[in-house]
């Protein structure tokens, strides 16, 4: 097999960073799109001992011109794109929907939905040319069921579930698969600040997973790597919960 080229959006932190490490271990060349430039050297350094070449491209996913520049960069540097993990996101806004502001709607829709869509358009064009493609999107348990105070986030994540299914069908005959992972509560920079600021909530988040432990980025990364492999080619249009049973039902 030729060396595969993979994109990870939001690859400098949390789930994205964990996935960059796993891909690099497996020998993928990896391009990271992110905005936290100051973290890039450390992530690249961590991957130095592995087979895959990791490069960073500053790309603010709120900006269409930067997204285009990002994909031009991949084309120039590697001449192809085989796999993409659309993962970048931030902030779980927890409040009753009537208190949500227009700015918050624009922010969450912008990063959690529109950025996925814009990236996918570029990814699909490159993968179609390539004759091979694997796309993994990031939804959430909140993209399958909702919960109190989570309407906006949940609406965005449900949008990703629908997008994944629809695009999977569009490209099913073209050796391109599109799936999504729905993480449970994963201990990342998204959650870690709660340890100091809201310790009770932090403890509650861990128990939200039926295993009563936080998931770790590698729990997700290993599934993404599997979905990137040729052997997974009959899995398409699925939303895979990786959550120790969170969306399976309720416990006593
Ligand atoms: N951590 C969890 O428990 C959990 C659960 C379900 C779903 N998710 C989803 O997983 C994804 C990753 O979450 P995480 O916990 O790893 O978060 P994180 O904060 O650790 O990492 C997110 C990354 O996205 C990047 N990013 C943010 N805005 C960006 C922008 N405009 N342009 C480019 N990059 C940008 C950040 O710089 C960061 O590196 C998100 O989509 C999140 O909704 C997380």
Automatic annotation (TrEMBL):
It holds the Pfam family adh_short_C2. Coiled coil: none annotated. Keywords: Oxidoreductase. CDD domains: SDR_c (cd05233). The keyword Amino-acid biosynthesis does not apply. The keyword Oxidoreductase applies. One of its GO terms (biological process) is bile acid metabolic process. Signal peptide: none annotated. Belongs to the short-chain dehydrogenases/reductases (SDR) family. This is Short-chain dehydrogenase/reductase SDR.
